[in-house]
Structures are given as structure tokens and as C-alpha cells.
Give the backbone structure.
Amino acid sequence: MSATVSHALRWWARTKPDATALAVGGRELSYGELENWTSRVAESLAERGVTPGDRVGVIGRNSLEWAVAALAVLKAGGILLPLNNRFKQRELMSIAEDMTPAVVIGDHEFEGVASNLQGPPAFVPLAGLAALAEGPDADFRRDRGADEPMIIMMTSGSTGRPKGVVYSNTTVLGAIFEWMIMEETVRPGLRTFCPVPFAFAPATVWGLMRTITLGGMLVFQTKFDPADAVKLLQRYDIQVTLGGPIIYEQMARTPEFEDAEFPSLRTAITGGARVPVELLEKWMKKGLPIRQLYGMSEMGGIATATSAADAFEHPDTCGFGGIFSEVKVVRPDGTECAPGEQGNIVARGPAMMLNYWNDPEQTRQVMTEDGWLSGGDAGYFTEEGRLKFVDRTRDLIIAGGINISPAEIETVIGGIHGVEEVTVFGVADEKYGEVPAAVVRLAAGLTTEDVLAVCREQLADFKVPRHVVVRSEPLPRLAHGKIAKVEVRREYAEFIEDPGSYGGPR
């Protein structure tokens, strides 16, 4: 079946080969160049032994080579596995156990890590792909079914073990086509700015895959620079952008923002944290409503988003659902809640994942037989039918739009000799919305710096607790022995709301 992103790339390369597809750091790549370069890389992956259905990891900073590698994996018939370049060896090894990648394509510093992974997989330097940028025209492509696995996006789970969310071409294209119908700016030729690392679903699905499918231009940075971002929005007449509230906040703080004008920018979607009214006002003065979404990786990232008209008057709501994506709030018995009645948010639609990779039990826990998916979040509908998100019933921390599993951090800290008890939860943070904090009971001689040193060694920097509180009394526990997190949160409510003014022990 030809309904794939690879077929779309081929079409645009034939119909407008000289149009810019990707732009980063002053480098631009046309559709004709992108088609040929990705075909050469795909052929080289096949020569290395990549067969249809093999997982291929891509890890490194955003670059033309990263985007080329990702698209080449699909052309080679592989399943793209974006990996976070902030992960440490322990985290990557845990993922590799489940995903068993045949090849890892990455920045040079990850070659040593790849050699320690199970297998180990073959390692291909991202920088080495530059040698295939030039050459004769090529058209290498192994077609796979549109409903077969295409991408596995890693997402943190409340169990502490990362889960692989499986997308197909049908899933990705379903998300794209639904938004084409609903959004005037999401059209062939759209110009998108993506300030998010490619390792995350918004950048891969809503940035790279959507833009290429629609024959548009994707402008991105190797690393987010807010002042440069403001300039890029203007230089390339960007129409669509995305990112957590922190992205818009940092851009609004730059001197460049003061006199900036964005006449083409029409769609700005955000999620992961509430948008302050002051920030909404700053962007509304520039003619742009920032729109709040409700979503999850399992739904392609977006299940529903507030309309442009509602962005300012109802900034704390998340819209009515999509034209094809349905959202409802249900009671524990599955019946629908009345307006204003809080319950569990569930959703279904064309962008739903196929499953969790190699984890049927976790898949069954979140997906019902009739296709509804539960993100473990609490919310309700207003009388007018707008969804209002209340709280996460699953125990995740969202820092600057990135999901962090407390259980994963607890596993690392709990494994330190001398740590008698630990619990981790999110606390308020002005910059990121919330950040991890740990409450620990330590044996004599062990310090918080000892704890943090191990965390820095074994966890990506954004997972390392920003605050550590030492307590002398045992943590409260439930009857079956688990730490009573609700009671802990109640006890540390002052700390959670304002860790900087907390008067307890540090």
C-alpha cells in the first residue's frame, strides 16, 4: 500500500525537487536532495543487514543527518527508534533489552555506549552520512504495509520502565489528515518551526513526518536558542509551531521579541503545563493565540486542543475533541460522567498507537476492547462541552513537557547502599512547571550529595532530583507495605507548592 511517508517524500521530490524541505543552522536541503540522500542511506543500511521490521535507533542532536537517518530507516523497511541523547548508558541498555535494535545511528560520543548494548548492534556515525549526501540519483525503498509498525516512541511509564509506543504509517497519516481538515494553516507547503528535540513524538510526528508528508519546510535548531528562534519565525515566515509553555516563555523574554512581528504565524500548540495568562497576553499582542492541548504519546501526542477563538477566553480548557478523535470522561464502571463531574479521561481516534512494543499486558491495561484509550488522567467537561484537565491519576512528573517517571528515579536512589527509604514526586518550578524532588531516609554517613552523584551518573540530567529532603522518621506506608504517596504529598504540601520557601530539613 502506498499510503506512507516515504511515498509522500518521493512525490514531492518529483513535483518540486528544488523546494526547501529542511533548514537548520543556515543549511538548507531541497526535496530532490532529501529523496536522493535518504535513498542512498537506506541502501547502505540494507547492505549492513537491516531487514524489514528491524529496529534502528537514531540518537544525537537535531541535525540534517538525524532527519535523513530517520527517513532512511523507513525507506529501508526498518522501524525507527528515536533515542534521547540525554540518556545515560543504564537507560539506553534498558531500552535496548526490549527493542533489540539491529543498528544504532548516532553522534560519535554514543559509539562506546552502543558497543555495550545487548548484541551489540552495529554503529553508524551520523556524521558519516555526509559522505552519501552527493552522488547519482537514487530511488531505494522497501515498501511495507501501511498498518505495520513504523516508529517506536519511548515514553516514561508510572511503573518506571520505559514503554515503546508503536505507530504505523496509518497512525501518523491519520493524525496529519485530521488536522488538515480542522486547521486552515495545515496544508501542503506549510512552514513549520520545531524547537523540540527529534527524540520526542511532537518533533518526530508533528514536526518531521507531518511537514514532509505535506511537502512543507521544516525549520529547526540543533539546540533551542530563544533569541534565534524569534528570528527564524520571521525569516522563514513560519506558519505553525509547537512546544511546551517554557518555549514560548523563553522567546517572549528575549529583546528580539519586543519588536518582532509574525504575520504568517497562525497555529501554536502547547501542552505539558498550564499557560499563564500573562504569557497568553504577550503572544496575543503579536496576533497569535497559544492553544492548550490534551494528549498523550499513545494518541500521537494530541487528542484535543482548544480552538483559536477559545485560547484566551478559556485558556484552562482543551477543546471539544477532534473531527474524528473522540474524548469522554468516565466513571470507574465505564459510564459517562455528567458535565462538571470529574472522572477518568479516555480517548480514541485515527492517531492511536497500535500497542506498546512487546508488552501486551500494559497494552490491555490502557486500551479497551472497543478502542478507547485511558491516559490515567482526571478531568471533566464543562456545561458547554469543553474538556478541562484536572490532574494526573498516574504518578508522572512533567518537566517542561517531558514525562519523567518517579519510579525510575526511586529505583536508582533505592539501589544506593545506605538509602533506607525514598519517594520521588514533582514540585513546583518557575521555569519547567515542575521538577523531580526526592524525600529520603539515609543511613549514617551518607549525604544528599552522595545520592545526587549516583543520580547524575545513571540518569539523564532532566531526571536528576532538583531538591532532596532528608527525613529521620520512616515514610508512611499503606496496609500492604507500599509507601502512602497521597499521605506523603499531604505532609509535604508546602514543599510541593513552593520548594524555595520550604522550612523543613534539606
Notes: Residues 160 and 411 are 8 Å apart (CA to CA). The chain has a mean pLDDT of 90.
